[in-house]
Write a structure and sequence with these properties.
This protein is mainly α and 296 residues long. The protein is built from twelve helices and two strands; from the N terminus they run ααββαααααααααα. It has a two-stranded antiparallel sheet with strand order 1-2. A hairpin with a 4-residue loop joins β1 (55-56) and β2.
Length: 296
Amino acid sequence: MNWRLIKDKLAERSFVLLLLSSVVVILLILIGLAMKSVPLLRAESLLTVLTDSVWSPLKGNFGFLPFIMGTIWVTLISLVIAVPLCVLASVYLVEYASEALRKMVLPLMNVLAAIPPVLYGVWGVLFVVPILSDYIAPLFGVNTTGYTVLAGGIVLAVMIFPIMISIMVEVLQTIPQELKAASLSLGATKWETITKVILVKAKPGILAAVVLGVSRAFGETVAVLMVCGNIPQLPKSLFDAGYPLPALIANNFGEMMSIPLYDSALMFAALLLFVLIFGFNLLSRLILNRLEEKAQ
């Protein structure tokens, strides 16, 4: 057989092997976490574990609702802050900014994405927490230390800015110039062209950027645990402390493992986080497919 065809076959089979290896690793992680979670689920029903708000390992109470709500609060706050700002910044960079500015800002986004999360956490402790406790919370008549879900959401929003802006800029740059020219030639203003043509056409790509941002927000650990307060309670306002799932795992793994079911509870927290991220990505992929079909 021709050597070139042999190399082609070897490359094809290598890629298949790598793909299968990736799937197997994911399945092994899922199975491992599920097996480790079984002791907790034998002692308590799944519904009780997910809906109970009492977390007291010494008394055998493992209610995960405060951690689930802490994760949701922090993630939603970060998205509310990050998505509009990232969309507007991306539109400005693509449609209004000069080429020189664009070439300066986009590499900076890559640098920001490479900064270790602990530095964002330190920034949050030094600047965000004091500003919340000394200036923002008093405006609403609230007395707080500043270690709140709002602080976690702000820090997380800054962390997901780079990845979202980088993807959104790339998506907006793929919109055909002919489409913009057609809209402008029909009498639309530039802003009307952006809102009614460009953003509509770029919607699937923008949604994909948001999905990647949320995936990072769900799993972010160090920076969030440094500013959230880490109190296992149900947050009722932006100025309440929270305790997201990744922070629970990072803070407690390796400690207090002599307590019955404690290690199983932490494995269940990891399994819950895995399922949340996997389910969110799957749902987002389905929505993206539907949007792409409509766009065609």
